[in-house]
């Protein structure tokens, strides 16, 4: 016969074997959690655990969690890309290229002239604008050639872009055309432009360059000026001691002017020399401002 105390111990051992040491499950650590079980999805919707009695339809076995739902194992994910603002163009000029007070004007004239690179007419300095302005300044001897759109650069660009080559009325032969009003000069043969308009500086007040039709009647690669004691490279005389020659001073200093001659940049003086000859026609028209 089995004693009552022994029977009680056997019942307790059987219960532990069948149901475990209790209805509470351990709160798993993230690294202990395997793939999320479908039957545990949405556990946050209601509390379960040791204090929650099994309701109808619930298994009386171990509860899936304690008072808080078991955290799901974090899945590796690709970091979300950082939001970046769309770059916008500002008026701040590129490093080493200052913004001039005539930026939009220069952009407008250079776009009309063409040949100096892409420019955007918006009044804002860009690397492309800077390169085009520097190229223009170097071509026409503007100092400093730093890409800054200042008054001299704007003035030169405006004058060149405003020059109408047909206004010269050149005939069939080579003609040197001088527009005193715009202070530009170019060469033509009939309706063909041999030398595009470039800058010049003619006679100042009291020494205005004579207007009219003339012809080159004397030439010398290096002429000496007796009254002014200075060399005149690539000299081509057309009337009254006046002629084309390379400038010996900064061409864009308007305060000094010439004594009636047509001053040219070095490269332009050589170009006109190569195009000219004794008998080349010269047409001077307009009036230099201030004379």
Automatic annotation (TrEMBL):
Residues 49-70, 80-94 have a biased composition (Low complexity). Residues 1-25 form the signal peptide. The active site is at 245 (proton donor/acceptor), 261 (nucleophile). It comes from the Bacteria. Residues 174-285 form the L,D-TPase catalytic domain. The keyword Signal applies. Pathway: Cell wall biogenesis; peptidoglycan biosynthesis. Residues 25-101 are annotated as: Disordered. Keywords: Cell shape, Cell wall biogenesis/degradation, Peptidoglycan synthesis, Signal, Transferase. Pfam families: PG_binding_1 (PF01471), YkuD (PF03734). This is L,D-transpeptidase family protein. It comes from Micromonospora zhanjiangensis.
């Amino acid at each position: 016969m089995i004693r009552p105390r022994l029977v009680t111990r056997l019942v307790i051992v059987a219960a532990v074997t069948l149901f475990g040491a209790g209805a509470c499950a351990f709160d798993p650590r993230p690294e202990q959690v395997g793939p999320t079980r479908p039957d545990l999805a949405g556990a946050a919707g209601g509390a379960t655990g040791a204090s929650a009695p099994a309701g109808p339809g619930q298994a009386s076995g171990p509860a899936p969690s304690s008072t808080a739902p078991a955290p799901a194992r974090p899945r590796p994910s690709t970091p979300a890309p950082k939001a970046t603002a769309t770059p916008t163009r500002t008026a701040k000029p590129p490093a080493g290229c200052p913004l001039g007070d005539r930026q939009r004007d220069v952009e407008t004239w250079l776009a009309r002239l063409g040949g100096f690179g892409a420019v955007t007419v918006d009044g804002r300095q860009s690397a492309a604008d800077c390169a085009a302005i520097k190229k223009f300044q170097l071509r026409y001897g503007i100092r400093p050639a730093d890409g800054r759109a200042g008054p001299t650069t704007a003035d030169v660009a405006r004058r060149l872009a405003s020059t109408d080559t047909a206004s010269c009325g050149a005939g069939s032969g080579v003609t040197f055309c001088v527009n005193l009003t715009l202070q530009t000069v170019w060469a033509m043969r009939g309706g063909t432009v041999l030398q595009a308009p470039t800058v010049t500086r003619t006679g100042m007040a009291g020494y205005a360059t004579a207007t009219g039709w003339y012809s080159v009647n004397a030439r010398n690669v290096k002429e000496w000026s007796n009254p002014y004691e200075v060399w005149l490279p690539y000299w081509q005389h057309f009337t009254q001691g006046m002629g084309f020659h390379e400038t010996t001073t900064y061409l864009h200093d308007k305060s000094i002017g010439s004594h009636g001659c047509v001053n040219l940049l070095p490269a332009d003086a050589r170009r006109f020399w190569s195009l000219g000859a004794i008998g080349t026609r010269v047409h001077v028209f307009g009036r230099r401002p201030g004379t």
